[in-house]
Write a structure and sequence with these properties.
alpha/beta, 197 residues, seven-stranded mixed sheet
Length: 197
Amino acid sequence: MNNFDGIAWCYDFVKRLVFGDVLDQASAHFLSKIPPGSKVLIIGGGTGRILNDISGELQITYLEKSANMLRRAQKRQSTSVDFEHIDFLDFQAPQKFDCIICPFFLDLFTQEMLGNVMLKLKESMVPGGQLLVADFSHRSSVLLKVMYLGFRALSNIPAKSIPPIQEMITFSGFHLIDSTMFLNGQVFSSHFRHVSN
């Protein structure tokens, strides 16, 4: 299963070298939609760059499987955040969250695995809760896909290609509120709402 410990030390540098600040822009694009006082779950936030872009009185739980990534995230944030060193699929949520943020997290999974991830996301949020997702497009360029495969080899993620993330989110019962593209459609940022049954 994926392990980012070995690349945590250079992750931000390589990300900026290849993408500039585009991935950070995509991750932050819909953060202003989170109402004050919300219980927020951030999954796979890596070195914590997204914490610099969050404002307002929020109750934040931050999940990260990589211990090295988590240590870097903890150094970024001075306000109160509950940091958890755990795989999301092993996480037992003590509460339902009003908003869940997945910054470049869902592309780690195969299409088959993503179904289970989406089910757990729904179980972890309140009915009508928000889901903010920034990730790579299923129809990314050949160059980006080659880079993705290289990254996969270094971090041992199970996915061999970028799954159709937005389509699977919608299929899983989330309503797309808004979406925007970056890098000529290679990266997206989307705002979904949980559709209660």
